[in-house]
Design goal:
Length: 315
């Protein structure tokens, strides 16, 4: 099924058609995308801010081709054929391959009162009318420009590895013996919207009672492009009412499901690139590629699960 997305310039003279707006990073290659100019940029401030003429946008990568006149016609794909039928006789096909070393789309969730485009890494396809061939300083009128935002989204490998495992032993005052906690997961990769089962084992050798179990999922966002700005925000905090009496054991699988729907008001939370009028997800974990310096990736995202036992009189 081909979904056609359309954007027209202010004077109606230019119309840009794309067959889709999501393009998948397969680690070794990226799906082809039609373009006029494709720009990958990091936005770290609102466009309406004006501080001594500074632009709160850093271009990571830009590529463009001339369509008319004397534009180079690419080999036509099935997608080209579909779009040209939709666009009519005065259409000019073009194609492009996204380089493998560019980051995926990530946007930082704005607060309820924030306006303008969200900060983060985005990709934009732009077509425009210019008076000169190669003049980067030429001022292009907004009415002569058509833009569409696309997403480069993270590919989830088909290979799933063994899940993590952690254990801890805690002693308490006024108790000769400790509490042992072990937590483990079946696999190391989960998809958006998938439930996450966590196997919890407790050996309570102390004379205290475990009142309940608390599980927290934290998202760590590391902005590496322009500064060492790193912060952590909880995306899930859930309590389970299981109790473990003194000198007893406990073993159970507890299930959680972190979701953006429960975090809509949290400013600065990292999301997969957001498109206009479409919802998105909590940002995917950044897949680091050995041949690419992490500074080029702009924003690194990772997640950590914490399990806490709340012990009566012991913290």
């Amino acid at each position: 099924v081909c979904r056609v997305f359309k954007k027209t310039s202010g004077n109606g003279g230019l119309t840009l058609y794309l067959g889709k707006r999501d393009y998948v990073d397969h680690i070794t290659k990226v799906e082809a995308v039609v373009f006029v100019q494709l720009a990958c940029a990091f936005r770290y401030g609102s466009e309406d801010l004006d501080v001594m003429g500074l632009c709160f946008r850093k271009d990571i990568w830009i590529h463009q081709v001339q369509l008319y006149p004397d534009g180079t016609k690419p080999a036509l794909s099935a997608m080209h054929e579909t779009l040209m039928k939709k666009a009519g006789d005065n259409s000019y096909p073009f194609s492009f391959e996204i380089p493998n070393n560019l980051p995926c789309s990530v946007s930082l969730q704005p607060g309820p009162e924030d306006k303008g485009k969200a900060c983060g890494v985005d990709f934009e396809v732009k077509t425009y009318l210019a008076k000169e061939k190669n003049n980067p300083d030429e001022k292009i009128e907004k009415k002569d420009t058509a833009r569409l935002v696309i997403r480069k989204i993270q590919y989830a490998p088909s290979h799933v590895g063994a899940g993590p495992k952690a254990d801890v032993c805690k002693s308490f005052m006024m108790s000769d013996k400790p509490v042992h906690l072990e937590a483990s997961m079946e696999k190391d990769l989960y998809f958006h919207g998938e439930s996450i089962p966590i196997k919890v084992k407790i050996n309570n050798e102390s004379n205290k009672t475990v009142k309940h179990i608390k599980i927290t999922v934290e998202q760590t966002t590391d902005i590496v492009l322009y500064s060492a700005d790193k912060y952590t925000k909880p995306v899930l905090s859930q309590e389970f009412g299981e109790t473990v009496e003194a000198n007893s054991t406990f073993e159970k699988t507890l299930t959680i499901k972190p979701a953006l729907s429960e975090n809509k008001e949290k400013r600065g939370l990292a999301l997969d690139g957001r498109l206009k009028d479409e919802d998105t997800n909590l940002a995917s974990t950044t897949m680091l590629k050995t041949e690419i310096e992490k500074e080029v990736l702009g924003i690194l995202v990772s997640y950590k699960i914490k399990i806490n036992l709340m012990v009566a009189g012991g913290g």
